[in-house]
Structure formats: C-alpha cells, structure tokens
C-alpha cells in the first residue's frame, strides 16, 4: 500500500514538475488574449475598408490581440463615447476633433500620453501641433482635411462654367445651373454636423484667418458676436444663397446629398475632403473638382481651408500589456503602407507623407499655394459645447422664410454668456 502510495505521489510530483517546466519554456505558455476596441464613426465605404485592412494586418501579426471595430453614427458618436467612458466601458482607441476636446478629456484623466510612440516620426510635424496639450502629444491626426466647394466637373464643362472666385461669380454659376434644371448646392441640413460645413467655410476664411484667437476671445467673452461685423457679413452671405439650396434642405440627409452629387441632380456641395470618397461610393466614375468658397468680391480672399483631421487618441489604461498592444496598433496605423490604403482606397489625404496615387481633387487641396490657403493647425478652436451652440443656433436661424443676422448674433452672445457663468 505504501509503495503504491509512493508511486502515486512520485508520479504526481513528476507531472507537476513537467507542467511547471513547460510553463517556463518559451512558446509553451499560453499568452493572455487582449481585446482592443476601436470606436469610430466613419460612414464612408473607403474608410471602413481601410479600418478592416488594419484589423486584418494587425491580428495576423499579433495573434494574442483582437481588434474589435465598433462603428456608430456620426451624429451619436459623442453621446455614445461619453456613455462608455462614464460606464467603465471605455474603447481603447477613439477620435477627437480638436485640441479643445483633447484638453477636456485629458482633464478627466481619460487620455494616454503618446509622446514616446515611435509612429510620431512618420507624421507631418505641422499636423501634430493639433494634438499637443500641456506639452504632451495626446492625439495623432490621421489625415489632413480640406474644406471648400466640391463640384461635378463634367456639369461645369457642359454649361461652360469656370470655378468662381468671387461671390458674384458664384451667383452667376448658381443662376446658370438653376436655369438648366440642376440644383446648385446639395445641402444635407437634416444633420447638424453636415450643415456646419456651410457656415464655417465662410467665417473661418474671414474671421478666424484674420485673428487666430477669434474663437478663444468669444469663449472668454472678451469679444462679442455682435461686435464682429465680419461674422455678421458672413452669416448674411450664407443666407443669400438659400434660394440655391436643395428642395427641403433641412429634410435632406448626407447620404441623399452624396447621391444628388453622384447622379448629377446637384452640381456642388460645401464640405470636407472626406466627401470625395462618399460621393464616389455612389458613382465611382464621377469627376470631382474643388475650389475655395468665395467670401467677397476680392478673389484673393477666397482661401482653401486646411486643418488636421480627426485625431486618434488612446484611453489611459493602467495595464502595461494593453498599452504595449495599443502602441503596436498605432505603429501599424501610421505606417506608410497603411496610409497608402487610406490615400488610394479611402480617398483621403493621410497625415503621413508619402508617394501616393491620389485623386486630382485631393492633390489640388494638398498642393494649394500657401498664400491662398488657411492652415488651422495649432490654433485655438471652439470646444465641443461652444461648437454645438454655434452650429445649432445658426441652423435654427436658417430654417425660416426670413433671416435676422442681428437677432442671431444676440442669441449666440446670450448662449456664450450663459456657458461662461
């Protein structure tokens, strides 16, 4: 009995030692599986294809990491993100629009410092300025965005139209299009974020370009909207084109506007450069051009707006293994190979310089002369709260049959005063 017992004990000991040894042999231990969630709001087909290519490459290279892609509607993105952060369900990777948003989320302790990430060496240094808060690199832009008037080149050529450089020339273009049964502007005003491209193409070129602290002064209340004649003028310009908007402009979605552009129902839309991919998803053969939005009768005042696009940020996890996995993910995202897909298949202007085969409209934006461009990198922007107030207030003012610029400015001042209290 004792011998049998000894044998059993000896066998158990040998098994224990064998398992213990195996656990210390490289390659024998089972690695912990890490899941990283990337929360995004990219509706364009090309961007989704790019994200999927990142996922496939990343999971093939790191078999102990799962990259979970969670795509939500752009209009609900901020609410969903804030809900997840508040409920301890934070995504690892998400995007923020500006340095003002970075500062707010950083103050709550949500953002990791990316200053020592190797991928920063690949990114355009001018664009990186947008992601710096208190000396730390908290966000990394994935793209350069351009704002202007995107148009159907074939329609312009059919009616002998040239790119307008002044407001009167733009009015003439609109009249010609209307006379020929074509809607001048596809206006997706059912969505506030899409509506916002129209006023900002005007006031950014004039108000912010002339004073880099324009928005900062409005937020700290050292400047009133009612004291800015330039802002008033640009709001009146916005309304002056309302007769050239889509029928039922405030019932038109961004998807519908893209379709209108793609099928030739409308000739122009004021938007960001991501519109190119969206429109081409409806008609890959469309020939798209771009020009700066005219703001006056002086052609030199029409500027191509360039800004750092969405910035990827990283949640401030304490787990070192998760942070290392995220570092590897960022190195892949901001590699030239990844950004080639972003440029050539998603039709975007990547933040990583490279020799890419890009669409003519995007190349035109990137190569627009500096003296005819307005770079918004590193300037103080509106934070999300103030920005929402501006867009919603202007949007509401444009919904009626008439427009009162003075009342609009007074309402904006009252709203900003209320936030400041």
Helices and strands in order:
Elements: H1 2-23, E1 34-40, H2 45-61, E2 65-71, H3 77-86, E3 93-96, H4 99-107, H5 125-128, E4 132-133, E5 136-137, E6 140-141, E7 144-152, H6 153-158, H7 167-179, E8 183-185, H8 192-195, H9 197-210, H10 214-220, H11 229-240, H12 254-262, E9 266-272, H13 275-280, E10 288-291, E11 304-308, E12 311-314, H14 320-333, H15 336-344, H16 360-366, E13 373-375, H17 384-397, H18 405-420
Parallel strand pairs: 1-2, 8-9, 11-13
Antiparallel strand pairs: 3-12, 4-5, 6-12, 7-9, 7-10, 7-11
Helix pairs in contact: 9-11, 17-18
Question: Mind explaining what this structure looks like?
Answer:
- The chain has about 425 residues and is α/β, with parallel strands linked by helices.
- Helices cover about 45% and strands about 15% of the residues.
- It has 18 helices and 13 strands.
- It has helices spanning about 1-25, 45-60, 75-85, 100-105, 125-130, 155-160, 165-180, 190-195, 195-210, 215-220, 230-240, 255-260, 275-280, 320-335, 335-345, 360-365, 385-395, 405-420, and strands at about 35-40, 65-70, 95, 130-135, 135, 140, 145-150, 185, 265-270, 290, 305-310, 310-315, 375.
- The strands form 4 sheets. Strands 7, 8, 9, 10, 11 and 13 form a 6-stranded mixed β-sheet that branches. Strands 3-12-6 form a 3-stranded antiparallel β-sheet.
- Strand 1 (about 35-40), helix 2 (about 45-60) and strand 2 (about 65-70) form a beta-alpha-beta unit.
- Helix 17 runs antiparallel to helix 18 (about 405-420).
- It starts with a helix and ends with a helix.
- Residues about 1-30 have low confidence and may be disordered.
């Amino acid at each position: 009995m004792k011998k049998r017992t000894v044998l059993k004990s000896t066998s158990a000991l040998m098994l224990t030692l064998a398992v213990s040894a195996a656990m210390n042999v490289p390659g024998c231990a089972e690695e912990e599986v890490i899941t990283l969630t990337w929360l995004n709001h990219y509706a364009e087909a090309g961007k989704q294809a790019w994200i999927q290519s990142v996922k496939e490459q990343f999971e093939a290279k790191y078999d102990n990491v799962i990259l979970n892609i969670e795509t939500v509607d752009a209009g609900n993105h901020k609410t969903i993100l804030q809900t997840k952060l508040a409920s301890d369900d934070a995504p690892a990777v998400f995007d923020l629009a500006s340095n003002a948003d970075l500062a707010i989320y950083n103050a709550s302790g949500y953002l990791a410092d990316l200053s020592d990430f190797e991928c920063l060496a690949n990114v355009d240094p001018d664009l990186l300025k947008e992601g710096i808060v208190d000396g730390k690199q908290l966000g990394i832009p994935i793209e350069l965005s351009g704002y202007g008037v995107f148009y159907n080149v074939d329609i312009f050529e059919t009616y002998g139209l040239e790119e307008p450089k002044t407001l009167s020339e733009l009015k003439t273009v609109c009249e010609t299009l209307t006379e020929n049964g074509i809607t001048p502007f596809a206006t997706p005003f059912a969505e506030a974020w899409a509506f916002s491209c129209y006023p900002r193409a005007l006031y950014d070129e004039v108000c912010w370009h002339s004073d880099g602290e324009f928005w900062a002064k409005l937020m700290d209340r050292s400047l009133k909207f009612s004291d800015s004649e330039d802002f008033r003028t640009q709001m009146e310009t916005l309304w002056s084109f309302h007769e050239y908007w889509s029928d039922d402009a405030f019932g038109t979605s961004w998807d519908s506007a893209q379709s209108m552009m793609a099928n030739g129902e409308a000739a122009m839309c004021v938007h960001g450069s991501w519109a190119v991919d969206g429109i081409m998803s409806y008609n890959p053969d469309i020939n798209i051009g771009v020009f700066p939005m005219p703001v006056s009768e002086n052609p030199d005042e029409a500027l191509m707006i360039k800004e750092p696009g969405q910035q990827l940020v990283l949640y401030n996890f304490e787990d070192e293994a998760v942070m290392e996995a995220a570092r590897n993910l960022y190195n892949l995202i901001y590699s030239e190979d990844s950004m080639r897909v972003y440029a050539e298949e998603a039709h975007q202007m990547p933040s990583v310089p490279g020799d890419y085969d890009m669409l003519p409209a995007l190349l035109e934006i990137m190569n627009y002369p500096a003296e005819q461009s307005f770079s918004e990198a590193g300037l103080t922007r509106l934070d999300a709260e103030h920005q929402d107030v501006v867009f919603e207030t202007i949007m509401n003012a444009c919904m009626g049959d008439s427009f009162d610029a003075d009342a609009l400015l007074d309402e904006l001042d009252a709203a900003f005063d209320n936030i400041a209290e």
